[in-house]
Amino acid sequence: MDALYRALMAGTVILLVLHVFFPGPVLYLLSLACTGYAFFRAFSKNHARRAAENQKYLALRSAAGKKLLQARNRFRDRRTHRYRACPHCRQMLRLTRKIGVNHIKCPKCQHEFDLNIRF
């Protein structure tokens, strides 16, 4: 049982709990679809394809986790730092909040540029 299977089963449980509080056929059918797909994946003989599906899911989950972590850090540092992307390599830079024009050198690509921080 891989990570996608566990996520599908957790989604099934969440949908069934929601179905208890909000009765109707939609949530129940979605939970059945999640369960059916999870069992299909569990009993499938095509292991290579199921492994590829799991890798796509893990990549998507990792990307979403990085975005959430970056948003949390930006919120935590909102009073002391500004986050800006390097115009050359798009690397996200964490800059101290000095109002005015700042001369910056990207640590990744060594590109030098001026950035105006207004507030």
Number of strands: 4
Shape: elongated
Q: Give the oligomeric state of the chains in this entry, treating copies of one chain as homo and distinct chains as hetero.
A: single chain
Strand order of the largest sheet: 1-2
Radius of gyration: 23 Å
- The overall pLDDT, averaged over residues, is 94
Distance between the termini: 50 Å
Query: SSE order in H/E notation?
Result: HHHEEEE
Helix content: 55-70%
Strand content: 15-25%
Quickly give the structural class: alpha+beta
Number of helices: 3
Low-confidence stretches: none
Count up the domains: 2
**Major beta sheet summary:** 2 strands, antiparallel
Characterization of the model:
- 57% of the residues lie in helices and 18% in strands.
- The chain is α+β, with helices and mostly antiparallel strands.
- Strand 3 (100-105) and strand 4 (112-117) form a beta hairpin.
- The N and C termini lie far apart (50 Å).
Task: Give a quick set of tags describing it.
single chain, two-stranded antiparallel sheet, two-stranded antiparallel ribbon, 3 helices, elongated
Brief account:
The chain is an alpha+beta fold and 119 residues long. It has 3 helices and 4 strands.
